[in-house]
Amino acid sequence: MTLPPDLPAAGEQAPTLARPRRRRLVLVVVLAVVLVLVAATVLVVYLDQRPRLERQANIDAVAVAFDDCDLGRTGATVDRDNGSIDFDAVGTGAGPTWDDVECVGDALGMPEEYLTQLQGPGDGFASEELRWDVYLALRLTGDGDTHVSIYHDWQAASYD
């Protein structure tokens, strides 16, 4: 416990004590700085996460289409985190069929003419991208097989 200072002798000035007003001012400044730092942190986290939040429903739609079309039985694989389905070789007798590709395409709103293009004959080794809405179908042909993948398109124009 601190004792109050002695009373000044005659003719001396009384010692000045820290004023409560200054303490309050320092407290207000510290609180303001903390609030600004918290707000800045929240803004940075929001700006970092916003693109993912905007796209999450479309990414989830790919996984839902995979499940709804029961593709787990066909050997097709799904990346649920990034929204892609790899059908591998389609229509070879073992594995996914064109009906499976059509099922996913219908679930994701793929134009019908794109399915026709995907099924078309390929000359040698070739690749083709078909984009619609926020999705992308990739067709790779070679060795007599057609490999198809459907992706969530991270660079879709609707996200700009």
Automatic annotation (TrEMBL):
Keywords: Membrane, Transmembrane, Transmembrane helix. The chain crosses the membrane at residues 25-47. This is Uncharacterized protein. It comes from Cellulosimicrobium cellulans (Arthrobacter luteus).
